[in-house]
Amino acid sequence: MNGVGQLEVVNIRKAFPNEAMHFTKWLETNIETLSERLKIQLTVEQREHSVGDFSVDLLCEDGSGALVIIENQLEKTNHDHLGKLLTYLVNRNANTAIWITTEPRSEHQKVIDWLNQYTPTDISFYLVRVEAVRIDESRLAPLFTILAGPDRQAKELGDQKKEWADRHYKRQEFWTMLLERLGKKSVIFSSISPGKENWIGTGAGKSGVTFNFVINKDWGAAELYIDHDRKTGVKNKEIFDKLHAQKNTIEEEFGDSLDWDRLEERRASRIRKKINLGGLSNQEQWAELQEAMIDAMINLIKALKPRLSKIR
């Protein structure tokens, strides 16, 4: 078509022979070009800003006054510049780091994506490729392409993963403490190791039937979980019903009322003693909660295990 030119990508060094003297200086006076591409208001505060023995290529401010550091690398990305990027960000207490390069390695792009996912929501990282282009015989111009940047969904996913990891760690800590307390009172669960799930269990003498400790955010529990029949679930309901027929006697031996959950819409059934003395989120009450859970489990096993052994 007449009037439509051909875009040509040329070696960046034809436009900017020296990174510091040509490209960084050009970017300092043309920062709005990058601002428009990133949709961030950028104002240059200083070029070659000192950070200890190092210097930031460009120290900027965004529209809210937060500091932004820009690290330029007109070559293939390397670990040295990645380290500088992080060093400048931390030591200048900046909120945004922008890494501009002509040849981004996929490994480094993954790092920037990871940083955007797992750092606080007010911290942002950008990986930007710069190319020198021209149309037909026009003057050379830089073209910026954003390869990696902050994403709200990624941040939320990262926060969720951190929350999951924290929860797993707390569960393992909780189970470790509970098993240590239990070991002073009984040998039940002696072969069980603390895990990261919200429950730990030991066999009740019948396949698929277990005595479980359960921990939730706000409560704990001791329970008998019945999943002996994993095909139809019919046998599970039969076992539950036979125990439920002895409800009054069982609760008298247990020493308290129990929750009898036949779980009509599910294959399994359970008999549970729920203990509302705080849960995983209330660490100050862990000791009291664990003692109550242990006592409930010991009494539950005494009341139910002999009866389970008689059910065929």
Write the layout of secondary structure elements.
Elements: E1 7-10, H1 12-15, H2 19-29, H3 31-38, E2 43-51, E3 54-61, E4 67-76, H4 79-91, E5 96-103, H5 106-118, E6 124-135, E7 141-148, H6 152-183, E8 199-206, E9 209-215, E10 220-226, H7 234-244, H8 247-254, E11 259-261, E12 269-275, H9 286-309
CATH second-level architecture of the largest domain: 2-Layer Sandwich
Counting DSSP H or I runs of 4 or more residues, the number of helices is: 9
- The secondary-structure class comes to alpha+beta
> Based on CA inertia axes, which overall geometry fits?
elongated
Output mean pLDDT: 91
Largest sheet geometry: 7 strands, mixed
Distance between the termini: 86 Å
CATH class of the largest domain: Alpha Beta
- Uncertain parts: none
Number of domains: 2
Please tally the β strands and state the result: 12
**Percent of residues in beta strands?**
25-35%
Report on the architecture of this protein.
There is one protein chain. The protein has 312 residues and is of the alpha+beta class. Helices cover 40% and strands 29% of the residues. The chain has nine helices and twelve strands. The strands form two sheets. Strands 1, 2, 3, 4, 5, 6 and 7 form a seven-stranded mixed sheet that branches. It is elongated.
